[in-house]
Specification:
378 residues, alpha/beta, Rossmann fold, 8-stranded mixed sheet, globular
Length: 378
């Protein structure tokens, strides 16, 4: 989606993708050893202001919050090549915002909390292969528990379950729901619409098999960040059109929702980090087979038939090319008579959502998101 078309595809949240820059290890490699990412989930009440930036606010983000700036400084300190200069395989080896947060926690002696969540992995069949699911099950609560099917970011090209472990784990801990994180297949090895098809297949599998892992098939929500936010909404639309049970609720965090890369936020934050306009264009090039696909309503969600969807919660970040996407999507949903609750967080960038260990706004956003999900899943 070059320019305007490109944005649509960069559904990352990867599409908040920058943060999603994929981890160096496979998503199925660490289902039972997530101690490192537990760090991300710590209670930040005692660490506010513990993390401070080294220099002045960058030119691309004069309003950035100190803690957010510290994360971006740490990410830049690794000296990785810009993603648009790399192949997808190379880009997946770059450091991620998650790496930066973990490093800052270590440097500032921010301890990791003990999370009351068990994890296990499961491979499921999909058209053309298999995909991996990671299930986060709260240790407390009586079964059957509600379920949240979660889709990570990364522009459909990079990132994995490990990079977004903090978000998935916090959602499970704070909602009391089983979170099923989906390792959909990535591009360019698997072009559009493979990720979208995998996302829907995972949702269908959960509906049919929830009882086998203590879940309640009648209380299933979908959630996602960036590209994953796009997948969450698409999954709900596909469920509606297929006349199967639609999700109880949808959470979309800075979703990729349009094909216009000349929106107000794209113009204001074209050079933002960790996600900028060139990266979005790179995601589009890798996921789509042709620029014509950028107009597909699965990419250009603001042109999709949104009527009949369940309540939607949308979170956006001020310093993010995708801010306008999320805001326009909220307007389109309201026009389609869908119940929408949305919040924008100032002073933070794309990928901030899972950084509650060091960024106060991330902790606030997670509390807001989980509060919305808990209310719907009751």
């Amino acid at each position: 989606m070059k320019t305007k078309l490109l944005i649509s595809m960069a559904v990352a949240g990867a599409i908040g993708l920058t943060a999603c820059q994929s981890n160096k290890t496979g998503s199925e490699s660490a289902d039972s050893t997530m101690a490192a990412t537990d760090t991300m989930m710590k209670d930040t009440a005692s660490t506010v202001n513990a993390v401070k930036p080294m220099g002045p606010a960058p030119e691309w983000a004069p309003t950035i919050r100190p803690e957010m700036q510290a994360v971006m400084e740490k990410l830049a300190s690794y000296g990785d090549k810009p993603i648009p200069e790399l192949t997808a395989v190379q880009a997946r080896k770059n450091h991620t915002p998650t790496d930066a947060v973990m490093a800052l926690m270590k440097e500032n002696n921010i301890p990791a909390p003990v999370m009351n969540v068990d994890t296990m992995g499961k491979d499921i069949p999909v058209s053309g292969g298999n995909i991996h699911l990671r299930m986060y099950t709260p240790k407390a609560g009586s079964s059957p528990l509600p379920v949240v099917v979660y889709y990570h970011g990364g522009g459909f090209v990079i990132a994995n379950l490990d990079v977004y472990d903090a978000s998935a784990k916090a959602l499970a801990e704070q909602t009391g729901a089983i979170v099923v994180s989906v390792a959909y297949r990535l591009a360019p090895e698997h072009k559009f619409p493979v990720a979208h098809n995998d996302a829907f297949a995972a949702y269908q599998w959960v509906l049919k098999n929830a009882a086998s892992f203590k879940g309640d098939p009648k209380r299933v929500a979908v959630a996602g960040e960036s590209a994953g936010g796009n997948l969450a909404i698409n999954t709900a639309i596909k469920a509606k059109d297929s006349k199967i049970m639609i999700p109880t609720a949808i959470l979309a965090v800075y979703p990729v929702a349009g094909s216009d890369m000349n929106t107000k936020s794209y113009q204001a934050h074209a050079k933002a980090k960790p996600l900028d306009k060139p990266m979005m264009m790179w995601f589009v090039k890798n996921y789509l087979s042709s620029m014509a696909e950028a107009k597909d309503p699965r990419i250009n969600l603001v042109a999709a038939n949104l009527k009949g969807l369940p309540p939607v919660t949308i979170i956006t970040a001020e310093i993010d090319p995708l801010q306008s996407d999320g805001m326009l999507l909220a307007d389109k949903l309201r026009a389609a008579d869908v119940k929408v609750d949305s919040k924008n967080y100032d002073g933070v960038t794309h990928e901030f959502f899972g950084m509650g260990a060091v960024v106060p706004e991330a902790k606030e956003a997670m509390a807001y998101a989980t509060g919305q999900l808990k209310a719907a899943l009751k």
